[in-house]
Design brief:
Helix content: 25-40%
CATH class of the largest domain: Alpha Beta
Number of strands: 9
Strand order of the largest sheet: 7-6-5-8-9
CATH superfamily of the largest domain: Aspartate/ornithine carbamoyltransferase
Largest sheet: 5 strands, parallel
Strand content: 5-15%
Structural class: alpha/beta
Bound molecules: phosphoric acid mono(formamide)ester
Order of helices and strands: HEHEHEHEHEHEEHEHHEHH
CATH topology of the largest domain: Rossmann fold
Distance between the termini: 19 Å
Number of helices: 11
Shape: globular
Radius of gyration: 19 Å
Length: 307
């Protein structure tokens, strides 16, 4: 399909066909990273700026490598040593960098909506790399890609998302993505960490881990986001890991072809036990590998065909 969007803010906005297009283009880019010369000229002459106002290991590195493998010039802007620390707004920061003729901003921010605010004020493309508790679209796209690789298609699959749903932008993007491609999504966690009314998104809710993992195809574990919890949602981490952490005993109950996923960073010993993260059913590092191809696809579709 002909790609018309300037930005990628969330999967809520995307049509099923648009998600499928990104996954198809990602598939065509996947082998670039397996070559001895990991580069194609698709974005030669384009300039991409990583604007990360929150820490990141995977997303920032993955976007940088994706851009470089497409031959773009990439600048990873260091917010901590910039004029943001002197009170410059995110919009002024973006407009000043845009004045240096850049083509695309990759934005991560702790405030939901920050990438959209930037996109309304610049002509360059804006890709959301995770905003507050809102969305993390490229994480969900790489998750969809990884699941599609394993099962062929998403339609009819059962996906159980476990943990801190309330604060999770990954959960929100994945709910939109899996539902649009025909998956059945169940969310599970302690009641204070399940947002009220989430059933309205067409997901099943359970507070019981055994129920969530029984007969599911994907167990998607989320990080407990203690930095976003403004009040005490849980009596103790020990209780959380006892009730909702995936340990060896619970792992053994999974059916033969169930896979485990996690967006990272993992809290080992809390939502996932160390031994389990390394098991055969774990797709955690495959997710990271696939992130490059998916981000190459998003960059290519967004800015690749503009002159
Ligand atoms: N999955 C994810 O967003 O990881 P980072 O915070 O390391 O980018």
């Amino acid at each position: 399909m002909d790609w018309k969007r300037k930005d990628l803010i969330g999967l809520e906005d995307l049509k099923k066909e648009e998600i499928e297009t990104i996954l198809e283009v990602a598939n065509s880019f996947k082998d670039v990273s397996a070559r001895s010369v990991k580069k194609v000229p698709a974005l030669r002459g384009k300039t991409i700026v990583n604007l990360f106002f929150e820490p990141s290991t995977r997303t920032r590195t993955s976007f940088e490598l994706a851009a470089k493998r497409l031959s773009a010039d990439v600048l990873s802007f260091d917010v901590s040593s910039s004029s943001v620390s002197k009170g410059e707004t995110i919009v002024d920061t973006a407009k000043n960098i845009e004045a240096m003729k850049v083509d695309c901003f990759i934005v991560r921010h702790s405030i939901s909506g920050a990438p959209e605010i930037i996109s309304m004020n610049v002509s360059a493309s804006v890709i959301n790399a995770g905003d507050g508790c809102h969305e993390h679209p490229t994480q969900a796209l790489l998750d969809l890609f990884t699941v599609k690789e394993k099962f062929g298609e998403i339609k009819g699959l059962k996906i159980s998302i476990i943990g801190d749903i309330l604060h999770s932008r990954v959960a929100r993007s994945n709910i939109w993505g899996f539902k649009k491609l025909g998956g059945e999504v169940c969310v599970c966690g302690p009641p204070p960490l399940i947002p009220k009314g989430i059933e309205n998104l067409g997901v099943k809710v359970t507070y019981n881990l055994d129920e969530a993992i029984e007969n599911t195809d994907i167990v998607y574990l989320l990080r407990l986001q203690r930095e976003r919890q403004k009040e005490n949602f849980l009596p103790s981490l020990k209780e959380y890991s006892f009730l909702y952490g995936l340990d060896e005993k619970k792992y053994e109950k999974l059916k033969k072809k169930t896979f485990i996923m996690h967006p990272g960073p993992m809290n080992r010993g809390i939502e996932i036990y160390s031994d389990v993260a390394e098991k055969d059913k774990s797709l955690i590092l495959e997710q990271v590998t696939n992130g490059i191809a998916v981000r190459m696809a998003v960059l290519y579709l967004t800015i690749g065909r503009k002159i």
